[in-house]
Amino acid sequence: MNTENNTNRNKGIRRLEHPILPLVDMVQFLYLTGSFETIAKVLDEMNESIEIKGSVYENPRQLLAPYMEMMQDFEVVKGPRKLPYTFPFIVNEKQEPQAKLKSLELWIKQRVLAKELEEINSILCEPCGCVLCCTGPDSGFDETAGYKKRMQQEFFEIPLLNEEIDLFELQRVDNDESRNLTAQSDTALDIDGAPFYKHDMALYHWQNGWSLILPRGSVCPQLATETKRCRVYAKRPAVCRRPQIFPYIVEELAEKAKRSDGKMIQVYMAREKILAVWDCPYVRQYYDEIVAYAERSRVEPVFRKSKK
Ligand code: SF4
Ligand code: SF4
User: Fold this and answer.
1) ipTM of the predicted structure?
2) Taking CB atoms and a 6 Å cutoff, what residues make up the pocket around ligand 2?
3) pLDDT for position 307
4) Ligand lying closest to the C-alpha of residue 156
């Protein structure tokens, strides 16, 4: 194990031991109950180390600075600030509407965790030497992720935004048939008498957008297999940035609600959890640390397997 890998592991574990949400909770409490006019003024006061549940945060103001824009949304509660986006409608698991402040808190938490977990993921992923997220089933790289048996899936799908498809010089399938189905439809798109996933790796335009289909044995064309690194790391697709531990504070539902002004707004359900994908080697390796991270962040950890 080389020194760089060890350094990254230690850095990742330290981040898990010092989650940002307890500090965000503290900022929220001080702002809402104190005489502070802005969130920035709360942060100005947080320049000495703070201990929360046994974890010492050396420079809270500096640690919180990257989350400032998200936390500033609290200012709508007692200041003239207006949200620069359409605020969603959030219900609890009994479908009851959440109070305005609770909804705001959940919405801020979701975004804060998404940012924090994306960074932790990048730190912990690299030392694993695993490329499971960049390969199809049975690619020959599965053992590095702990898979010894043949995987059951026929393909893996990497959803892409329209502006991301040019990252891949691959054949494109974009016709009425593909656009009437999704990769997960019960009836698989048929190409020349065989399901689409029996053909070579390609880009498909589905009913729900574009995706890169990685059939059995395939490897993303942007993966440098000799170094196990992504050739387009800095501009890799958004889905490739998603962590294997991800926020599930709110879940987007397939429905909209009518606001008092008649505008239709997206409905979300409060979940207050984080989801960790058990297939990922660092999730298995740092199970205890992830559970402790969730407890400190006051969310429930849920572990799920996605690859079979
Ligand atoms: S684009 Fe990069 S990060 Fe995404 S699947 Fe391909 S190699 Fe992996
Ligand atoms: S499964 Fe985990 S360790 Fe493997 S490539 Fe994906 S994020 Fe990295």
Assistant:
1) 0.97
2) 121, 125, 128, 130-133, 145, 244, 279-282
3) 65
4) 1
